[in-house]
Design brief:
By secondary structure, the chain is mainly alpha-helical. The protein is about 75% helix and about 5% strand. The protein is elongated.
Length: about 70
């Protein structure tokens, strides 16, 4: 969440200060979009959130459900 918030604040500061977001990185090998460090933070945060939701969240929910059932049976 910290990466997502930091990226958003970084882009917001650029938007307020300059009226637009300053992009500084361009990958010419792939003819990809031009982006900045805040965009990298936001993208990494989204990927990490997706990994958590796919791989870790279901396990946590199963453990929580098993704990509640154990308390109800006791």
């Amino acid at each position: 969440m910290a990466l997502f918030i930091a990226g958003g604040i970084g882009n917001l500061i650029d938007r307020i200060r300059f009226g637009y977001v300053v992009d500084m990185f361009e990958i010419k090998l792939f003819r990809f979009a031009i982006f900045n460090f805040a965009d990298i933070c936001i993208t990494i945060a989204e990927v990490l959130l997706l990994v958590y939701v796919i791989f870790f969240y279901p396990k946590a929910e199963k453990a929580k459900k098993a704990e509640q059932e154990a308390q109800e049976n006791a």
